[in-house]
Amino acid sequence: MKKALIAFGTRYGATANTAQVISETLRQQGVDVNVVDLKHEKIKDITQYDLVVVGSGIQINRWTGEPEDFLKKHQKTLGVKNLALYVCCGSATTGKQEDFDDAKRKYLQEKAVKYQLQPVALGLFGGVYNYNKEPWWAKKALEADRPRVEATYKAIEPGIYDTRDLAAIKNWAAELTKF
Length: 179
Description:
- By secondary structure, the chain is α/β, with parallel strands linked by helices.
- The chain contains 7 helices and 9 strands.
- The strands form 2 sheets. Strands 1, 2, 3, 4, 5 and 6 form a 6-stranded mixed sheet that branches. A 3-stranded antiparallel sheet has the order 7-9-8, with no helix packed on it.
- The longest helix has 18 residues, at 97-114.
């Protein structure tokens, strides 16, 4: 049986939930999956895994610190593993191909190059906008996009909008079993 590690960092929970969706899909394909929130658990050894999936939320054009540290710490081993990277970010859901392509380049392709990694898959997924919890500076930055988000996505709770396409995430995860 193949073994997979899904290691992630999240700020507001979208990346954690995405990790769960990916893990459920992999398990349905017969993969033994270990899901780790890098904020709460450190991984010392990844040699036992056939596939390593690393995910991060994006805020102010930055990865969450813990998955970035994970890539740095395990760079050498990840270089010879089947590695997949994914991020959850608003740039994936603006509806503009240019924004999507730019986000994929900045948050995934450039991250792989930075650590000399060659991922077998890159996943760029939407995020969750929680207008109730954002710090004042983030609310100010997101305010211009709020009308588009409210018009395009249904609120899962008042002030909270999930822009992820769960079917696309499941399809992406199912493809990971081919590596």
